[in-house]
Here is the input.
Amino acid sequence: MSQHSIEVTVNGEAVRAEVEARRTLGDFLRIDAGRTGLHLGCEHGVCGACTVMVDGLAVRSCLMLAVQANGRDVVTVEGLAHADGTLHPAQQAMKDEYGLQCGFCTPGIVMTLAALTADGARPTEAALRDALSGHLCRCTGYQGILRAARRLAQGTAA
Ligand code: FES
Ligand code: FES
Here is the structure.
């Protein structure tokens, strides 16, 4: 199997690796880059747990190949909080609104909400529901997640 040299900016840090063409971005991030905050659930684009940001857009890392991320800017959930530990507003809103229980789905949901509300964007209720429909959560019943999403969309999250 041929190997490819890639360099990906992960949470502001250059990560270089030799990867097989078939390696997914999700596996690259967890195994090669050591960013285990993203979770791999279904591994075929259904659950949303593996969502990260690539060049500012929410992407399912199980559906993107590592070689496709070569030269791009990737942010995982570890890259959201400030160095002093202050949470990103999407994280804070999920915490404050009890949007998580076991936490398996949470990194993906946080990344989707962060991408959706980046640069002060105020998505509509329909857009929030549409984006969250791509995330499976077996624990919460979604009400806390929706409250967190609405707070973010209204710009009232910390
Ligand atoms: S692991 Fe990627 S969508 Fe489920
Ligand atoms: S909090 Fe457990 S799957 Fe969502």
User: Anything to note?
Assistant: Residues 106-116 form the longest helix (11 residues). DSSP finds five helices and five strands in the chain. The pocket of FE2/S2 (inorganic) cluster (ligand 1) is lined by residues 40-43, 45-50, 60, 62 (CB under 6 Å).
